[in-house]
Amino acid sequence: MASTCPNCGKKLKWYNVKAECSECGVSIPNFNWEGRLEEDAEIIEKKFRSFYRTMNMLAYSIWGTILRRVRIILSFLPAIGFLLPWGYLKSDAESVGLDLVGLFIKGKSLIDIIGDFFSNSSLYFTNMAYEGNSGILTYSMLSILFMLLSLVFIVVAFFLILFTTKHPKTKAMVVFDALSIACAIVSAITFAFAVKSTATQSAVNFGSFSLYNVSGSVLWGFFVALALLIGAFVANLLVAKAPAKSNETLEEERLARKAEKEEKERLEDIKKEKAREEAEKKAAEEQERVVAEAKAKLEAKKNKKTKKD
Predict the structure, then answer these.
(1) How many angstroms separate the CA atoms of 78 and 232, rounded?
(2) Nearest Cα to Cα of residue 96 among 209, 189, 193
(3) Do residues 221 and 180 make contact, with C-beta atoms less than 8 angstroms apart?
(4) β pairing state of 203-206 and 209-212
(5) What is the rounded distance in angstroms from the CA atom of residue 265 to the CA atom of residue 272?
(6) What is d(CA 118, CA 224) in angstroms, rounded to the nearest whole number?
(7) Strands 87-90 and 215-218
(8) How far apart are CA 20 and CA 7, in angstroms?
(9) pTM of the model
(10) Torsion over CA of 193, 195, 201 and 202, rounded to 10 degrees?
(11) Under 8 Å between Cβ of 98 and 86
(12) Sorting pLDDT into bands at 50, 70 and 90, what band is 13?
């Protein structure tokens, strides 16, 4: 219940449970309902305009131009690069690789290593300390860390395309793309150090895995992933430098498309109405012709009968 009567302004107490005001007798729930309905309609229309403006900006940000359509594709493709093998440590016992799920190399995959690390983290740190924090295990884990950071940064850059629709000229995606590229390069470099360490370490306890007579290399998957990351970086940089339409321009274009659609529908309705009228006219003419023929036949029969009489 309102705190005051909307008609006379009388203050209402908690025990005023009737719908009518005790002072002026007006029905409070129904008072000025037409005005309130118009206000609600204006509020709804305003919210719809805001919704259409947001969706318009989102559509423009994602596929509003050819360059932006290319950008959204190139920003998604780097995810494929992280499914590829970045590096491989082969040994006479276990073998481990920077291959996410082990699709391309034999041995322990990246998921196996991460799961083992969280299950035996103290063992990993003990083994890294044993090799002076500068051996195969240390450099391999650093490589995995920077690989994951690269993945996080490129995912953030991708979703920023959706979250920064109101700022089409922002360079935030470019920054995160650059960070992703830098982390990927550092990942490859640290893994190269791990491979180099195999010359002085013939055996290593890789967490709960044991490696003997270790050899390894940075694999082709890293270079493919790096190329995809650079492609996303270039695409976002070109979009950031390209001219962008303002909210007002996009709204004007939306209203113009709406007006064009409404005009097309209006012309289509007129066309249908004319077709309906023409069909009715033809039906009426056909009916008149049928009636005229029937009358003519009746008249002919009548004349024939008259002649016989």
Answers:
(1) 7
(2) 209
(3) no
(4) antiparallel
(5) 10
(6) 29
(7) antiparallel
(8) 11
(9) 0.71
(10) 180
(11) yes
(12) confident
Cα→Cα distances 31→7, 20, 42, Å: 8, 10, 19
How does DSSP classify residue 153? H
**Please, what is the average pLDDT of the chain?**
86
DSSP H or E run through 238: helix 220-241
| Amino acid present at 31 | F
Task: Quote the DSSP letter at residue 133.
Answer: T
E strand intervals along the chain: 87-90, 96-97, 203-206, 209-212, 215-218
Please name the residues in contact with 303: beta carbons below 8 A apart, sequence gap of 6 or more: none
What pLDDT digit, counting tens, does each position of 217-267 carry?
999 999 999 999 999 999 999 988 887 776 677 777 777 888 888 889 999
Residues 110 and 97 sit within 8 Å (Cβ to Cβ): yes
pLDDT at 35 over 80: no
Dig out the tokens for 243 from the structure: 């001219």
Amino acid identity of 182? A
CB 94 within 8 A of CB 109: no
- Beta-carbon contacts of residue 67 (< 8 Å; ≥ 6 apart): 235, 238, 239, 242
In whole angstroms, what is the distance from residue 284 CA to residue 287 CA? 5
Least confident interval from 16-30, 83-97, 167-181: 16-30
pLDDT at 27 over 80: no
- Residue linked to tokens 């303002």: 246
